[in-house]
Amino acid sequence: MASIMEGPLSKWTNVMKGWQYRWFVLDYNAGLLSYYTSKDKMMRGSRRGCVRLRVTSLRTEAVPNP
């Protein structure tokens, strides 16, 4: 996998109603944002889920400085 960015993030879950640690990997060539329960699981190829970015649209909004 040719990742251009990877690292830890927290992800909200409605099941346990809280934030969970995940290791995310952005694969530009495949158009995927994959996530794993840990970096170790990523090294073993045990993906927890992914978002296919080629079929999504993104928008940004300006956030005012307090």
Describe this structure in words.
This protein is mainly β. It has a single domain, classed as PH-domain like (Roll). The protein is 8% helix and 45% strand. The protein has one helix and four strands; from the N terminus they run E-E-E-H-E. It has one helix spanning 39-43; strands at residues 3-13, 18-27, 32-36, 49-52. The chain has a four-stranded antiparallel beta sheet. Strand 1 and strand 2 form a beta hairpin. It is globular, with a radius of gyration of 14 Å. It starts with a strand and ends in a 14-residue tail after the last strand. 6% of the residues are buried. The mean pLDDT is 86.
List its traits.
4-stranded antiparallel beta sheet; mainly beta; PH-like_dom_sf; 66 residues; PH domain-containing protein; PH_domain; 1 helix
What's the layout of helices and strands?
Blueprint: E1 3-13, E2 18-27, E3 32-36, H1 39-43, E4 49-52
Antiparallel strand pairs: 1-2, 2-3, 3-4
Give start-end ranges of low-pLDDT stretches: none
Radius of gyration: 14 Å
Q: Average pLDDT, to the nearest integer?
A: 86
The CATH fourth-level homologous superfamily: Pleckstrin-homology domain (PH domain)/Phosphotyrosine-binding domain (PTB)
**Main beta sheet: strand number and arrangement?**
4 strands, antiparallel
Q: Estimate what percentage of residues fall within beta strands.
A: over 45%
